[in-house]
Amino acid sequence: MNVVVVESPAKAKTINKYLGSGYKVLASYGHVRDLPAKDGSVRPDEDFAMSWDVDAKAAKRLAEIADAAKGADTIILATDPDREGEAISWHVLEVLQKKRALKDAKVQRVVFNAITKSAVTEAMRHPRDLDMELVDAYLARRALDYLVGFTLSPVLWRKLPGARSAGRVQSVALRLVVDREIEIERFKTQEYWTVEANVSAGGDPFLTRLVKHEGKKLTKFDLPNETSAFAARDAVKAASFKIHAVEKKPGKRSPPPPFTTSTLQQEASRKLGFDAKRTMQAAQKLYEGIDIGGETVGLITYMRTDGVQTAPEALDEARQVIGGIYGREYVPEKARIYSTKAKNAQEAHEAIRPTSLARNPGKLRLDGDLGRLYELIWKRMIASQMESARIERTTIDLDSADGKTGLRATGQVVLFDGYLAVYEEGRDDDADEEGGRLPQVKEGADAKVADARADQHFTEPPPRYSEASLVKKMEELGIGRPSTYASVLSVLRDRAYVRMEKNRFIPEDKGRLVTVFLEEFFRKYVEYDFTADLEEKLDLVSAGELDWKVLLREFWTDFHAKTQEIGNLRTREVLDNLDSALAPFLYPPKADGADPRVCPTCGAGQLSLKTSRFGPFVGCSNYPECRYTRPIGQAEGENGGENGDRELGTDPESGDTVYLKAGRFGPYVQLGEGEKPKRSSLPKGWSAAAMDLEKGLRLLRLPREVGLHPEDSQPILAGIGRYGPFVQHSGTYANLPSVDEVFEVGLNRAVALLAEKRAGGAGRRGEAAALKELGNHPVDGQPIRVLSGRYGPYIKHGATNANVPRGSDPQALTLEEAVTLIAEREAKGGGAKKKPARATKAKAEGGAAKKTTAKKAPAKKPAAKKTAKKAEAEEA
User: Fold this and answer.
1) Is residue 421 over pLDDT 90?
2) CATH number of 2-130
3) What is the distance between the alpha carbons of residues 241 and 226, in angstroms, rounded to a whole number?
4) Which residue among 177, 180, 463, 705 is least enclosed by CB atoms within 10 Å?
């Protein structure tokens, strides 16, 4: 008997069918060991000795693997063909050796780039030893990430309360987002004008633009205002023109190579609207296998790669498929061979492609994300082996009779579409393509201006990063690796360092503060070149050209000294540095030239950066006499008042004044003064500048009574809570889609919403509402439902709750997919015995569940400390 170890149960099931009865295929369920989230897991003083813990969920799986190994002839480690896969194999082997489970069994390592019968059986014929150079590169990367997280993050917590964590790659990616935001804020808009004219020269009219005026070639800003632009327009209208030159240049557009991990993430973002994590989840399923006609087949090759090269047999198949579908004229004379610039040899595998191009996406009919992503991969691979598009670029130059005014028209026409018949690469910008076909004209022919116009334009700042453009930038700079991009971007969002608006990254105040702190005190470690250089050194380790402990020693010596130096600084000294660095952002110049640091409330104090356990804020130096504060991201008067606070009017019922105030956590309305006046924060989406008395009173009078429920005559209330707008009746809460509905919802709609919530099993606040009934489980017949929970949609079957993969549409989930997710959850220990939802939530955010009992309440404090360390020190 031969025992084969892979990562996932889906992969194990498929491979077991391929190999037959002589093999037993078991899954490790990913990584089986990790560094404990506590000080001392990596010990620089002991030559970077590392302690590893077996995850509790993995212990059962490892025991099964060990039991099987004791009677096996050969142990075949068949984890993924990259550095992480090599590391998982090494961890499994280490555990088996400690358990003394190997005995006389041979240990072999095999890798395959696709989960197909031919790929797997071929790999089994060519086993090798474990590649310790790849393992060393993994160990170096893991140690670096741990040391940065557990050394730098505690400095952040002490000096910058409210900060969550810092990381070797995550902090540099955050700096990219913040630097772009600062670039946008500093951008000075500049006005410029262009002049265009519709011209005819004996045939159809065509559009031209002014390129020469008063005998001078125009540059972008040569027409800076309306006066100069109108004068140029009038000169065009008054002139008579002749065709000076007609130039036609044939050209080609070659297809892009097949996908790498980063280009797949970029195109899926542009064309499908997927974030990186959603893309990789769908790609993982396509790689591990989909049931087609009763057989599970891997549909794409391995999805973590820097390589663009393709196996010869795949090239041959592509050429056959192209000829069959599009015709021989679309097949180039020779197969296209692409090469990669990646230095990371262990990840430079084949490009991402379908395992068989004969599996046309139209015939497979895959649902949802899988179908859309597979079609994208199939088209890109097909296009990469097609003939180039042939185009013709035409330029027509026109000169006035006196030679002082010149017009130009440009056009482009596709003579042969080639690969464009299948695929055209998306772009991050909104630039227009060159014009279409121009009419046939002759040199020397007279041309007549039909009309001319002058258009005003303004320069625009660079756009904020989208997922696609940020991944592209990280790849260009050499920051991170394909397998890390999705997790890095997720960490930035999870830590609330950034938010997404219109699919663009915007740094939160917290993220900006962390970046400025690191730039001020740890600049070297967030430099793009330094991070890229470290990645290159890790590549040298994987290539066997650099000892991994030498790399760690070089890094740790300077880094440790720097953290100790900054750790000894007083918090006030740190805040003063940040206050100075952030001055243009915190205290923008006033239009009247007054000092922007003067307190707008007392007029005597000076504003400066202060901190509390909730994080930094701007406050007055005259505290406690003056209690003026504002969030760091809100400029003075941003809530609509000259001095930060303003009166909205008088409440006709109580006679008290209604104020709009700027608080530490944002603007709010307040009724009257006194020790405990009624207050209400402005809901998300409400502009402080647009607040008036009517809106203020509406907020202050929440919750409002919608009416009495017809069943028990108890009141139904509408309000805004921690989780958004709601209606409530007798302990049942139902969400409202918008804040406006809180003030508009009627009795009938409120009763219907509450009934829907109760029908979904939501008898108490916080319980889940049903989103979809999937049917009964094929084994025990119990119902399976998709529910809406506090932290997102999940699948419920009996006592087992399984998360709906992030980015997936819960309404598109099938019964088969749900059964698989439930099985995976139960295999990991999910079910009735695993109760604490809060612990699960904490762990999902990088924290550890608190271990407390009724008798030992004081244990909460050290447990919370451990939670914080684990949460903040994790690296993407």
Assistant:
1) yes
2) 3.40.50.140
3) 24
4) 705
Among left, alpha and beta (phi > 0; psi -120 to 50; other), residue 392 is beta
**3-class DSSP assignment, residue 362:** helix
Instruction: Give per-residue pLDDT as tens, 200-254.
Output: 998 889 999 999 999 999 999 999 999 999 999 999 999 999 999 999 999 999 9
- Lookup: tokens for 733: 């809460």
Whole-angstrom Cα distance, residue 388 to residue 336?
11
* Strand 206-213 relative to strand 498-501, pairing: unpaired
Cis before 652? omega within 30 = no
State which CATH number among 3.30.720.120, 2.40.50.630, 3.30.950.10, 2.70.20.10 fits the domain covering 191-254+390-458: 2.70.20.10
What's the CA angle centered on 346, arms 340 and 349, to 5 degrees? 50
Identify the residue whose tokens are 């007054």. Answer: 594
Task: Note if 465 is an active site residue.
Answer: no
pLDDT of residue 643: 40
Q: From the candidates 146, 287, 302, 485, give the one annotated as an active-site residue.
A: 302
DSSP codes of every residue in 661-717:
EEETTEEEEEES-SSS-EEEEPPTT--GGG--HHHHHHHHTPSEEEEE-TTT--EEE
How is 539-565 classified by DSSP, letter by letter? HHHHTTSS-HHHHHHHHHHHHHHHHHH
- Read off the tokens for 105: 């069994």
Task: Look at residues 549, 298, 318, 524 and name the one whose alpha carbon lies nearest to residue 422.
Answer: 318
CA 659/CA 668 separation, integer angstroms: 8
Closest C-alpha among 31, 25, 65, 876 to residue 471? 876
Per CATH, the number for 261-387 is: 1.10.290.10
Judge whether residue 637 has pLDDT over 60. Answer: no
Distance of CA 511 to the CA centre of its chain: 15
- Give the residue-averaged pLDDT of 108-119: 90
Of 559, 289, 253, 293, whose CA–CA distance to 386 is shortest? 253
User: What DSSP line would sit under 635-655, residue for residue?
Assistant: -TTTTS-TBSBEEEEE-TTT-
Within 13 Å, how many C-alpha atoms sit on residue 10's CB side?
21
